Amino acid sequence: MIQPITASYMRQRIRACLVATALCGPLGVGLMPATAQQADSAQDTTSGTSEVFRIDEITVTARRRAESLQRTPVSVTAIGGEDLVVRSIDSFNELANAAPSLDINGGIPNGGGSATQIFLRGVGQNDYAFPNEPGVGLYIDDVYISRTAGGDFGFMDIERIEVLRGPQATLYGKNTIGGAVKVITRQPEGDTRGEFGVTVGRFERLDFYGNVEFPLSDTVFAKISGAQRTRDGLGTNLIEQDLGNEDEATIRGVVRWVPNASWDVSLTSDYLRQRQNGPAGSMVHFERNDANAGGIDLINSLLVQDEIARFGLEPPFDQYGDAFVKTLEEDGKDVYNSFGTVETRDWADIFGVSLNAVWTGDNVTVTSVTSHRRYDIDIRRDSEHTPFDIVRVDNPENTRQFSQEVRVSGLSFDEKLNWVVGAFGIHDWGTGELFAPLLSGLFEATGGLADNTAFITSEIEAYSLAVFGEGTYYFTPDFGLTLGGRLAYDDKTYNYGLSRPESGQVPLPPEDLVADWTEFLPKAAVEYTPSDDLLLYASASKGYKAGGFNARALSGIAPQPYDPEFIWAYEAGFKASLADGRVTINGAGFYNDYTDIQLLAVLNLGGGNVETVIENAGEGRIIGGELEITARPTPNLLLNAGLSYLDTEYTDIDPDAENAGITENNEFINAPEWILLLGGEYTIDLKNGGNILLRGDATYKTEQFRDAVNTPQLLADAYWNVNSRIAYQDPSGNYEIAFFVTNLTDEVYITNGVEVLGLGYVEAYYSRPREWGLSALARF
């Protein structure tokens, strides 16, 4: 049986973990394959001969301390690094098929298609622009990642990922209103070892990855990891550019110093270089109406002749209209091919360095996390996907962040109180440009009477400061009360200027916009363990996402601010271990009171002018729950299942949001009502001592809208995603070869899109089709 969590036991676990790694190291991982993590076994004390097998204990740090998943009163899914591999999860977009209530997509296509827009329990943010904040916090080795652009990086040398559902503001901060995702990488442990792998597959896929670790002395260890990912595109545009391709290289180095049992210090540096062409998409709807008819007629009479001659366009493709529409229902995978003629791009250079230092004493631990990160992105998008230069967006950005967190945790009052207090600060600053030649050529064609081209310059400087504390007092070994709170302060200065290069007009000279917010974010929870195999808990907490400024005031109207959004979340759950540890069942139900909801919409301002805005749409409520089951009926068979349900509803809509097309009848964005996860793996032991691993996974999601105004053409239909894998491992465990197929049933669905009916069209982007691959891995 799993040892009950007492204060003494918790102290022992914390010490052992902190000595082993800077991040509470040798932590168990969830749903690990039998090839990497065998079921626990022991002699049956009754007969003395029968083998007892159970699911391995999983250790997580969701509450900023190392503890068993089954004794953590938080809704958490933990996915081990080995499990990511056998489930063919190699980047954030694939992670969406690994946890209930989780959805991940590239967000608004301005983000280049590689932005990481994470939604948990129907809460997130669909705009990557830097005045805006994510709704789900992303942490890599305890470092908060403030930018989502270029964030869909390939997973490399991962120890585990923890998905924390529900507001995590007390211990993690302002932008965890929907939850938090923690990525923990493997740390060097003092051995000389490494691994190297290669993957080939459909679309000329060729990936290389590897790592090597080695001691520099008895107390200093080093590790270098690297990966290169390349894939051809899914489609092309009229200038024969690959769309939906991959070209990404990553390198990470770690130096770790462990001089004694008290100190553990890691210095980490990482760099990502991405040179991709952007996602594959198409126009999915064209509509001429009273509001946009004049603009469409203007385009066809003045702005299409050059492209007609250049590309030899013949009717009906010589006019801007519905001839360019492609839908999944009518055109199938041809939606990957665009009629666009703009050379698109999705480029990123991201660099980071962090210093994690942990000191452990008697009943107290001090943790310091210092980090600097730099993001340089360059994104270009052809929005309407026609040969005509109607809407193009060029958007380079350069941003920086410096963050510092200090935490002190320990045990007090005869080890009945487990507590943590700390302070956090982050400074973000950066510059950006947005060149949007709406109706390019209009100025010349009208003799200087009309100029819709916009050139935006912007600067951001933001500070966030917070102090926080949380403690759990165990009145008895079975009953604990947790109280916590975070006092957060945010200050933003946003400089915005708009000019029109063709006419030389400056509708909005650069001007500073300033706002600040101070919030207190409390939490209270109770936990009760009536037996060693059952945990019951209930909690109430407040989540918060900072306000900001609209980043795309293309029309000449000054950027408008929007306020923070809030959630009061109420949750009750249980975690149970059954059948002598062979089965775990974890469940949670919740009610969220959601206010000042920030939603993205595109406004039609007339005359060919459109504007992307974020509005505080009003209020809403979310009711739902999750259930996760893991079972090991035999030592060689592992089964898992997950289920989530979401019932979302707007209860009040602001008039400005109504003008943008958001009503109380609208569905929440990226919030499927049901998500079902099914998985299983079986290990075949071979006579030579090697083994064969068979793995299958299936994810079902009901339909969901990809924009706030619920554009019918941006409704992603319900779909199944099925992955399979077969792997052989040699007797020594040093070599492995695997064949895998992702999206086995070849389902293609809309992942994101934008409605721009002010100019007559709706655009959409799509999931990847069926792909196969062959990988080989060597360890030494």
TrEMBL record:
GO cellular component terms, semicolon-separated: cell outer membrane
Keywords of this entry: Cell outer membrane, Ion transport, Iron, Iron transport, Membrane, Receptor, Signal, TonB box, Transmembrane, Transmembrane beta strand, Transport
Taxonomic superkingdom: Bacteria
Membrane topology: Multi-pass membrane protein
Protein name in the entry: Iron complex outermembrane receptor protein
Limits of the TonB-dependent receptor-like beta-barrel domain: 340-744
Signal peptide annotation: 1-38
Pfam families linked: Plug, TonB_dep_Rec_b-barrel
Residues spanned by motif TonB C-terminal box: 763-780
Species the sequence originates in: Eilatimonas milleporae
Subcellular location per the Swiss-Prot or TrEMBL entry: Cell outer membrane
Keyword Transport: yes
Keyword Repressor attributed: no
Family, per entry: Belongs to the TonB-dependent receptor family.
PANTHER family xref list: FERRICHROME IRON RECEPTOR-RELATED, TONB-DEPENDENT OUTER MEMBRANE RECEPTOR
SUPFAM superfamilies registered for this protein in UniProt: Porins
InterPro entries: Beta-barrel_TonB (IPR000531), Beta-barrel_TonB_sf (IPR036942), Plug_dom (IPR012910), TonB-dep_rcpt-like (IPR039426), TonB_rcpt_CS (IPR010917)
Residue span(s) of domain TonB-dependent receptor plug: 69-180
Example GO BP: iron ion transport
